[in-house]
Amino acid sequence: MLFALLLFVPAIFAASAADWRSRSIYQIMTDRFATTEESGGSCGDLDNYCGGTWKGIENKLSYIQEMGFTAIWISPINQNIDQSTFAGNGYHGYWPNNFDALNSHFGSSDDLKSLVSEAHARGMYVMLDVVVNHMAYPADENAVDYSQLQPFNSVKYYHEYCPLTLYSTQTQIEQCWLEGTIVSLADLRFEDTDVAGPLKQWAQNAISTYGFDGLRIDAAKHVSKEFLSSYRASVDVFTIGEVYSADIDYLASYQRYLDSNHDFATQQLVILGAFAFSGADMSAAMSKISQIQAAFPDPSLMNTFSENHDMYRFASINSDVNANKNETFFSDGIPTIFYGQEQSFTGNNAPSNRQVLWTSGYSTSAPLYSFIATCNQLRNYLAYADSSHLTTDMKLLKADKHDSAIQKKNLLLVLTNSGSTAASTTFSFESEFSQGTTLVEVVACNEITVGYNGSVTVSMQNGLPRIFVNKSAIRGSGICSN
């Protein structure tokens, strides 16, 4: 199984954007994924450290790899504030107070090197989450002791405090503080060379010391595009930026400065719009696909997702596991699954969406675990067999209120939001396949034949997606024992 999933993924670690395009990413919150001793309780206080470590991740890489993932994304590694505040402490990694030290809760430098080395030995990339916008102090903005922040230990390195109240004003977005009450997130003067230089040098050192293959830049829209562009050039690895906006044009503008961004437009307008809510209109949501494709310089490099550490888990909005299957792995970009999604974890805003994974027993029989493994296996093979598969935009063939058909070269997705209790129906449409083409449905391994003028009729049952592939495109792949 493991060999079949990863046989077609090249092991290249001086990874470019083109190399990352074929990857699928498993997002890990380090403190919540696995403990060193592979033990631990339920962690009753999710606002504080629960005990996950880098060694714990290394010990559980097989769990991730056997789902077919070819990259992991780990939490920031810097030392964070340890004090327990009303908002908790820095277990998540986004409240750094010392860039020059590692977060000892996660392990040692040797532990981190070992994790990256083992991932590379398995042919997997490692993406590091980095914070460039701010440093953290456990008090309100009037009480920040800048001398305790390293290496930026003077007020001169920070923008003067202002509360971020106008998200329509780019100057406020970039120069005001994200937080200045319980925990102050002192906003760094990224435009100054004595701030930008050390930030870039730190990232370069982290990459050379540990061997990271890519960076995810937290709060990317809260620093300038000019800084992002120079930062990307200095680190010379693949970069994904967090630009929290579903405005298609605004979000797309940042891909001119970074390789990729989290695709909040697809997540909010298409995925949630089509599958999350009762009464969702599939046709209206899917109509956004062409707008997104036209706006982004390279949709195939965008980071697509439905869950992350800052948002409601999908199962909290829609507990139907079949609905979750429909929204998984359907878009053009680099797919990412947030740890626990494969176990159908629920949870609304942080920290309730940041549960510890070890309470699941790392079940490999969970419905979404096996479904994700199938999707990854197919995507890995199609990318290997046809270099143009990933760079070809998917095409919406037909959509109505409850069903849609999407084709991407030899791949055909028939999706539904009707739910697992819906009556069986059929959905008919015209594809771009030639008459007589045999299509294999890769979950049930059934076959259908394309009719006149590319016509396809699909039986839809129990709210499940139907994932078809041209049979001739998977010969020798091991998919459905072909």
Task: State the strand order across the main sheet.
Answer: 10-9-8-5-2-1-12-11
Number of helices: 16
| Main sheet overview | 8 strands, parallel
- In the CATH hierarchy, the third-tier topology of the largest domain is known as TIM Barrel
Assigned CATH class of the largest domain: Alpha Beta
Mean pLDDT: 95
Low-confidence stretches: 1-8
Structural class: alpha/beta
Signal peptide: 1-17
Cofactor: Ca(2+)
InterPro entries: A-amylase-like (IPR013777), A_amylase_C_dom (IPR015340), Alpha_amylase (IPR006046), GH (IPR017853), GH13_cat_dom (IPR006047), Glyco_hydro_b (IPR013780)
Disulfide bonds: 43-50, 162-176, 445-480
What does the model show?
It is built from 16 helices and 20 strands. The protein is an alpha/beta fold and 482 residues long. The chain folds into 2 domains: 2-6 and 15-392, Glycosidases (TIM Barrel, Alpha-Beta Barrel); 396-471, Golgi alpha-mannosidase II (Immunoglobulin-like, Sandwich). An 8-stranded parallel sheet has the order 10-9-8-5-2-1-12-11. It has a 6-stranded antiparallel sheet with strand order 13-14-15-20-17-18.
